[in-house]
Every structure is written in structure tokens, then in C-alpha cells.
Write a structure and sequence with these properties.
alpha+beta, five-stranded antiparallel β-sheet
């Protein structure tokens, strides 16, 4: 039996989302089942300790399902000696359009192929991290790949695995209903759900 199958079986037994990845929701459910109590009155996945103030300001813009994942990634990176901060979260369509314009209608270099409504940042399910050393931000570092591996292990999708524009600082949490959907179809569904006032995670 593969480890993903074992994790999926445990998740099914615990009654949490079955994705074969042991993220904060799964570990929180295991904690609650074995230890049998809440932490500070919160469900275990919600009780993950806050991280640095800069990251927390950005994390607050993310959907509740994504927030513990972002905190856990910061903590997992710190545990292996890598200092990261969450530096970008939810963006409005207008903010996304302004980023898209760079290198096109505005000065700068092209950093995204996504217009407003075509980025997972527009729906609160994506965030970007920065690697820091001695308080200094590193836009390029091999440590991004190490953090990418940590995020994927938790069940996050990592922009470093993309083919068109490789985006190593980018992480996103795919809703269960979108499993197996191509990115384009998932974004179309997210736009529809937003327009209809529906939740993104069900």
C-alpha cells in the first residue's frame, strides 16, 4: 500500500477531505481523535499558532480553509531552517489587472499571464511566499524549491511545477470539487461561484 493510500484511508475514517495529503486538517483531526480535546476553544486545524505579523496580515485575506495551510507552511519551513513570510494573498480583479499590465501596457517585466478573474489569488485560495535571510528578502534562492516540496507534501499546489510561467513563490489550495479539473476550468467555475455568491469550498 502506498503512503498516499494510507493517508486517504485515515482521512476517510476521520471524516475529513480525502486527498491523500497529510495537511493541517488531517493532523488536526488525528489530534482531536487521539487527544480528544480542542485547543484554546478552537478546532485543532484552526489553532495553529500565528506566525510573524507581516505574514498574518496577508494570511487574514485568505479563505479560512487556506489560512492554516499558510501558517503551517511557514512553520514547516522554519523547522528545517528556512525563514519565509507570506507576502501576497487575496487580490481584487483590478489589482490583478495592474500586475498583468506590467511589461505590457505599463513599465516593468511580465510576471503573470493572468488577468483579473483568471488568477487563484482573486478567490483567496492562493498565496505567495518570500524567502528571507538575516531579515533580507531573497527574490531568487534554491530554498524556494525546498519550500515547494514542503508545500506539495502538505497538499498544496506549487507554482514551481507549472509549465508556462514557473512561479516558485506561489502556492494554492485546490477545492475538492475541482480535483482533476484543468486549471482553466477550475478558474471558470470559481468565477461562476463568485458571481452567484456561492462558497468556494464545500
Amino acid at each position: 500500500m502506498r503512503i498516499e493510500e494510507m493517508i486517504a484511508a485515515v482521512q476517510a475514517q476521520l471524516g475529513v477531505e480525502v486527498d491523500g495529503k497529510a495537511g493541517p486538517q488531517t493532523w488536526g483531526a488525528i489530534y482531536a481523535r487521539i487527544v480528544g480535546r480542542k485547543i484554546d476553544g478552537l478546532r485543532p486545524a484552526e489553532a495553529i499558532s500565528p506566525v510573524d505579523a507581516r505574514s498574518e496580515k496577508v494570511i487574514a485575506t485568505l479563505l479560512p480553509e487556506v489560512q492554516p495551510m499558510a501558517r503551517a507552511l511557514v512553520q514547516k519551513a522554519a523547522a528545517v531552517g528556512i525563514s519565509i513570510k507570506v507576502i501576497s494573498g487575496l487580490r481584487t480583479y483590478a489589482e490583478q489587472d495592474a500586475i498583468y499590465a506590467k511589461g505590457r501596457a505599463a513599465p516593468g517585466t511580465i510576471v503573470t499571464n493572468a488577468r483579473g478573474g483568471y488568477s487563484n489569488h482573486n478567490f483567496g485560495i492562493a498565496f505567495d511566499i518570500g524567502v528571507f535571510e538575516s531579515g533580507r528578502y531573497l527574490p531568487d534562492s534554491p530554498k524556494y524549491k525546498a519550500v515547494g516540496a514542503l508545500g506539495v507534501d502538505m497538499g498544496l499546489e506549487w507554482g514551481g511545477n507549472w509549465k508556462s510561467i514557473v512561479d516558485q513563490p506561489h502556492f494554492q489550495l485546490r477545492p475538492a470539487w475541482a480535483a482533476g479539473l484543468p486549471e482553466r476550468q477550475m478558474l471558470a467555475a470559481l468565477r461562476d461561484r463568485r458571481a452567484q455568491g456561492q462558497v468556494f469550498f464545500t
